[in-house]
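Here is a typical sample entry:
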Amino acid sequence: MGSSSALLSSLTAATNRLSLASASSSSFNGSARLLVSRGAPPSLVVASPPLPPLQIRAMKKIQGKVVCASNDKTIAVEVTRIAPHKKYKKRIKTSKKYHVHDPDNTCKVGDIVTVVKCAPVSKSKSFVVAEVKTGRTPSTQLPAPALPSFEPAASA
């Protein structure tokens, strides 16, 4: 009996040394997982393939009106949304301004533009102009109303 229990204990010890255990590294999102064998030297640590990165696909394209085009290669686009009030359910108009990269300085104030989210160009710009629908040009503006001429009546 003594030899069989010694054989059993040596088999369990050998099994424990050879079994693989999953240990995760101390990375932020846990994307790097390591397979570590118990009792093996640290040089034999095998890394598993990393997980694919998380992708956010919200709000890729937005459409708005150019309200400022005085900066070089930057325009300010105002986007207006209509959403119901949380409590009263009345539709409320909200607007937000975005700084948008305009590499060719083609946009003018009043243009309707479609902008697309991209990698950040600067601290405040993470959108780029995709399509420009021109607004009212100076030639199509309404003319100023003509005032009637005032001539004093001639006294006889």
